[in-house]
Structure formats: C-alpha cells, structure tokens
From TrEMBL:
It comes from Leiothrix lutea (Red-billed leiothrix). Residues 404-716 form the Protein zer-1 homolog-like C-terminal domain. Residues 196-337 form the Zer-1-like leucine-rich repeats region domain. Interacts with the ELOC-ELOB/Elongin BC complex. Part of an E3 ubiquitin ligase complex including ZER1, CUL2 and Elongin BC. Belongs to the zyg-11 family. Keywords: Acetylation, Leucine-rich repeat, Repeat, Ubl conjugation pathway. The keyword Acetylation applies. Gene3D superfamilies: Leucine-rich Repeat Variant, Ribonuclease Inhibitor. This is Protein zer-1 homolog. One of its GO terms (cellular component) is Cul2-RING ubiquitin ligase complex. Pfam families: LRR_Zer-1, ZER1-like_2nd.
Length: 716
C-alpha cells in the first residue's frame, strides 16, 4: 500500500556505495606503507559513482559513530583520469584545507561547503582551481574561510610567545568564476566587502546573503536581468533595501524572513511594502516574510475573512496586498507571524504555526540552514503529536529524523526532536511505519544518546526505545544499544527516572536472545553494573523497580550462560543475595527473581561446589516453604536443590543440614504445589530440566523435573 512506500529496499547503487565505504581496503583500495589509502590502478569511476561515494562518506562520518573516517580519503579523487567528481556536498569539521586541496584538479560543477569551520583562506585559493567550471557554490557558515594565519616576527623563539594570528583576507574576489550562477554566502564573517567580492560575477541567478548586515545593497541591481532567487534572512532591512529589491523584476523567490528572537530589528513590514512587491515582482512564485512584525493591519475585515470555503485564489485573499497576485504563490513563509492564522492564504504551501501542515512545511523549509527556527517548529509538532493526532505521520517522522541527523550537535533540536520522536513512534502509529523507517528512528535515537549526556535528551531517547519491540527491533544495533545503556547506568550521578527506564531496557534486551548475545553483553560489564546498582539500593535500604529489574536482568543474562553465572559468583553475588533476603523479607517479586537467577547458577556443574555451604543450603531449604508469588519461590528453591542433589551424596560436603532431611523437605514441597498452577516464568529450552530425568542418583530431582514438565506442558 502507498502508506508503506518507504519500505522499498535500498537501491543496489546505495548498497554498493555503503559496502565499499565500509570496506575500502577490501574493495576499491589498498594500503600503502600501512597508512595511506591508494586506489587500485585498474579502477576508473565516473562522476555518478564518485559523487555518491564522497557525499555518502560525509553522511556516514557525520551520522554513524562506528564509521571510521580516513585521513587520506579525499586523495583517492586527486586524479581526474581515474575518478571524476562533479557535484559534492561537504559539511562541518569533516573537511579540512588539505581535503579540498587534494581534489583541486577536478572539474567541479557544484560545491556545497556547509558550516565547514576548519577551512581557512588556503581553501579560497583552492576554489580558484574550480573557477572555470563551477556553476553552483555554497560557503554557508564557513566562518574561517576568509582568515589566513600570519606569523609575526618570523623567528623561532618569538613564535612561541606570539602564536599564529588570524588575519582577514581582503583581496579575494570571484574574478574568473565565469560560469558561477548560484552562490550562498550565508553567515559570512564581518569585514569582508561583499560588493567587491561579487562584482566580477557577470550573471548571478541565485544569491543567499543570510545573516549578513549590509546597509547598502544597491550593487544587487547589476544582476536585475538575471537574479531569480534572493535570500536576505536576518538582514535588518530599510526603505533603501526595499527600493532595490523592487527593481529585481526577474525574482521568482524572495526571502526577507527573520528570527524574531535573535536581535532587535527596526524594520517593520507594511501594506505598502507588500503592495510594492506584488506590483513589481510579477514573476514571484515564492515569498518568505516569516518572523516579521506588521506595522499596520494588512488583513481584510473579519466578517469577510470568515466567509465561504477556504480558498487559495488571490481574489479572495485574507491578506489584502496579495489580492493583486496573478496566481497563487507556490510557497509563502509566514512562520511566527499573525498572518498565518488567517482563513484565505493565496499559496499552495504555507509555513506557519496554525496547524500540522504549516508546521511541517516550516520544518521542511528551514532545517538545513536555520536550526534556531527549526527547533521551535519541531516543538510545535511535539504539541500536535502529544495532544492531537498526526495526520501526516510518515512525513513528520522523516522530517524530524532529517533534522536530528543534520544537527547532531544542536542541543535544542536534540531535545525537541527526541521528544517528538517519542510521541510519533508510540503504538497508535505503529501500523503505518515500515521496518526501514523504524530503524532510522533507532539510529538517530542512539546518535542522540551518544552525543548528549544531557538528562532531557537521555530520558527522551530511552523512552522512545521503549516504543519498540525489544529485543527484536533493536537486534541490528544490539551491541551499541547495550553499551550506551550500561554507560548511562555506570554514571556516578544518576537521574532516578532514567535509571529506571535504562534498567528496564537492559532487562528486556537480554530476555529471549541467543547465548552469544548474552555472553557478549556479559563481557561488556553487564553483571558488574547490575550488582553495583543492587549494592547502591541496599545501602539506601530501598527495594524499588530498579532493584527488582536488576535482579530480573541478572536472571535473564545468566540463563544457560555459564560465563555470566561465574561472573555473578566472582563479584560477590551470593553475599548480595543473602543481604537482600535479610533486608527485604516480604518482597515476593524480589525473592522470585533472585531464586530464578540462582537456579541458572545451579545448572552449571562446575559452579555447584560454591553453593555447597551450610548457610546457602539452609536458606534454600527454608525457602521451600515460602508461599511468595504463588509457587514460584518454592519451585525455584527446589530447582536449585534438585541440581545440587543430582551430584550425589559424595558431593554433600556439609554436616548441617543433613542431605536426607533436605530431600524430605523437597518431597513435601513438591507434594504441596497445585499441578494446575499458572506460571510466571519463561523457559527458552527444557534442556536443564531434561538433564535430571535419566538417572538414579536423586529420585527427588527426577520428581521435580517431571512435575515441572507436566505442569508446563499441561498449563501452556
């Protein structure tokens, strides 16, 4: 069905790209001198493949914590005779000057550098080598690319006193970039003369000057016959700016939106300004005026406004100036303005805060370059998902996943995004989600847990994981999710609620999984972590969910896993068992969990001698009479003793209590149980019980095993 469209498998191209990047040495490359990656000499790759390799590599480094970046990766693309690059998107600290330098011989058509803070003026020089082919360039947020390092003095000793100083490069221009049509200089550093920088460009089609303060934009008119897209987000405008914009008659997309929280703006939008745009910019299909305060009322009278069916026809527009439009706009940005709540808005797509559709449009439009706006839009989505019902679930999930991936280090987005995910993945939406989509959610949740030790993010992520079927849906990230949860539980200061959820998740993860999984988790320190939690709770004299879950988790992880049973004994598990029994004599659930675990330990022949002490045997014998949790505590105590008895009289190395006396109490206990008891227990296999059947050493053990099998197969 179309609902599950996102469940189609990845393309072969995507799968191959991913595999090659994770196994460069085994596929495209070999290691030179054990450190430098080199392309095999018989490999020739076209730009369709190389672009994907580079773009996917950047994505993997950014979003997959297990993926190891290679220092010499970009050198694989240094020779255009064997590898061709045309369109590449590089982001953040992943790319450095030497990486761009390595690919300088490539004929790049499109180069997007987003928030690449490590790039310096060396990379400006490298850009020149792409000048004859480059059509589209973004330097958005590359805040150091106009800085070069200057060494004062030049002498060795002096350099230690005066470290390198950052100096602004003033003489760089886009001279020679004859084909450049699309340019994004968003968040350009102050002090660079934009007019001089851009003057050599003959015919710009799209220009983004987000976050740059320019008092004079008159120079824009030199492209009045070619400019179709202009973005001046967060620029404080004036009447002069408006007059210049009105002359750019070819504009199809104009964005003068702002973040109304960022700083004080003198400029206020008026009816006249909007009229001017509508009259002069006749080709306009997209306009963004989000965040602006309207100086005067631009709406039609409210009686008229409320009338009739909602319409996008300009003639019926609730915003008076837009009645002059020839046709509805494709996009109208009204986020955080009062206009978005009107009835008739002449646009196919509107960003705003009135309803789910507007909010999703906002997240979609602003995620890439405006995290400050996106986090507020996601917050609105969170409210919609929490209070109402999301009608565009798949789109909402996809957008939140994209935002979380794109802004892994933005605290606001991680907090609001992880909270929204919790509500978007809960059970009422379950049917509409594909396996692939749910896996993407798990990936971003684990990314969030990895990057943020912040309590809110950790709690949101843990809660979201509880919406999944555990362990099945987390199996593909099994090791990673366990490491993250143990990491949370090993922190010295802990939030009670997170601790409770994390222990619950740990317990669910080791229930009903294969032994190799349990052994792997045991080696990560699982047993030790749970015992530490129990120790802490004992010291506080508290028996809460954390205490019970911890014992339950130990019961699960020791099931038919001798290594983990041994760890339990080596880390003084028996001492804690006795102390808990003494401190909490009335806690039935606790007793059941502890004895279930000891049943697992007793199944291991090599470990049984450690249980053979007067103290332990007395405790087990006394628990035979326990009525705690129906028959569970008595049944488990009898199971422990049945395995011990199975080793024969010669293994009974104690004087008190006598073997016969204990046997008698075991018979009595078994006789007292109701054979039709409904049980509170999960068996993964009957092997440990079946072991006790074909033997003549201990009839009482045989009797316990037969009773157990009869009960389990007749009740279930």
């Amino acid at each position: 069905s179309p609902k599950m469209a996102s469940d189609s498998p990845e393309s072969l191209m995507t799968l191959c790209t991913d595999y090659c990047l994770r196994n460069l040495e085994g596929t495209l490359c070999y290691l030179l001198d054990n450190e430098t990656l080199r392309l095999h000499p018989d490999i020739f790759l076209p730009s369709e493949i190389c672009d994907k390799l580079v773009n996917e590599y950047v994505e993997l480094v950014k979003t997959d914590s297990i993926f190891e970046p290679h220092e010499s990766f970009f050198t694989l693309f240094s020779d255009p005779r064997s590898t061709r690059l045309a369109r590449i998107h590089l982001r953040e600290h992943i790319v450095q000057d030497q990486d761009l330098e390595a690919i300088r011989k490539q004929d790049l058509i499109e180069l997007y550098l987003t928030n690449c803070e490590k790039l310096t003026a060396k990379s400006l020089q490298t850009l020149v080598s792409f000048s004859h082919t480059l059509i589209s360039l973004s330097l958005f947020g590359c805040c150091n690319i106009f800085y070069e390092e200057e060494n004062p003095g030049g002498c060795e000793d002096d350099c230690l006193v005066n470290p390198t100083r950052q100096v602004l490069v003033k003489d760089f221009t886009f001279e020679g970039f004859s084909r450049l049509r699309i340019l994004n200089l968003g968040r350009l550093i102050e002090g660079v003369n934009v007019e001089t920088l851009l003057r050599p460009l003959a015919s710009l089609a799209a220009l983004d000057l987000s976050g740059i303060q320019l008092n004079d934009v008159g120079f824009l008119t030199q492209w009045k016959d070619s400019l179709v897209s202009l973005v001046l987000y967060n620029m404080d405008l004036s009447e002069e700016h408006i007059q210049v914009i009105a002359q750019l008659r070819k504009l199809r997309h104009l964005d003068i939106s702002r973040d109304h929280l960022s700083s004080y703006y003198k400029f206020k939008l008026t009816r006249r300004v909007l009229n001017l745009f509508v009259e002069n910019l006749v080709n306009l299909t997209s306009l963004d005026i989000s965040g602006h305060t309207m100086l005067e009322n631009c709406t039609i009278p409210s009686m008229e406004e409320k009338m009739g069916q909602t319409s996008i026809e300009p003639a019926k527009s609730s915003i008076a100036p837009f009645r002059g439009l020839k046709r509805p706009l494709q996009f109208l940005g009204l986020f955080e303005t009062s206009l978005c709540r009107l009835t008739h808005i002449p646009a196919y797509k509107v960003s705003g805060d009135k309803n789910e559709e507007q909010v999703l449009n906002a997240i979609e439009a602003y995620t890439e370059h405006r995290p400050e706006i996106t986090s507020r839009a996601i917050n609105l989505l969170f409210d919609i998902a929490r209070i109402e019902r999301c009608s565009q679930l798949l789109r909402a999930l996809q957008l939140v996943i994209t935002a979380l991936k794109c802004h892994k280090d933005d605290k606001n987005i991680q907090v609001t995004g992880s909270a929204a995910l919790f509500y978007l993945t809960n059970s009422e939406y379950r049917m509409e989600q594909s396996v692939k989509l749910r896996r993407q959610v798990i990936q971003v949740v684990l990314n969030g847990m990895e990057s943020y030790q912040e309590v809110t993010v950790q709690r949101n992520c843990c809660l979201t994981l509880c919406n999944f079927s555990i362990p099945e849906e987390l199996e593909f990230q099994y090791r990673r999710v366990n490491e993250l949860l143990l990491n949370i539980l090993n922190q010295s200061r802990q939030d009670e609620s997170i601790q409770r959820i994390a222990v619950h998740l740990c317990n669910a993860l080791v229930c009903q999984v294969d032994n190799d999984h349990k052994e792997a988790v045991g080696k990560m320190g699982f047993v030790m972590t749970m015992l530490k939690l129990i120790q802490k709770k004992l010291a506080d004299k508290t028996c809460d969910q954390v205490m019970e879950f911890s014992w339950s988790a130990l019961w699960n992880i020791t099931d038919e896993t001798p290594d983990n049973c041994e760890m339990f004994l080596n880390y003084s598990g028996m001492k804690l068992f006795l102390e808990c029994l003494k401190e909490f004599p009335e806690k039935q659930e606790l007793h059941r969990n502890m004895l279930g675990l000891l049943g697992n330990v007793a199944e291991v022949k090599e470990l049984r001698p450690q249980l053979m002490t007067s103290q332990f045997i007395s405790v087990f014998s006394n628990l035979l009479e326990s009525k705690a949790d129906g028959i569970e505590v008595s049944y488990n105590a009898c199971g422990v003793l049945s395995h011990i008895m199975f080793d024969g009289p010669e293994a009974w190395r104690i004087y008190e209590p006598h073997r016969e006396e204990v046997v008698k109490r075991m018979w009595a206990a078994i006789q007292s149980w109701d054979i039709n008891s409904r049980r509170n227990i999960n068996y993964r296999s009957f092997e440990p019980i079946l072991r006790l059947l074909p033997q003549g050493i201990s009839p009482v053990s045989q009797h316990w095993a037969t009773w157990a099998l009869y009960n389990l197969v007749s009740v279930y």
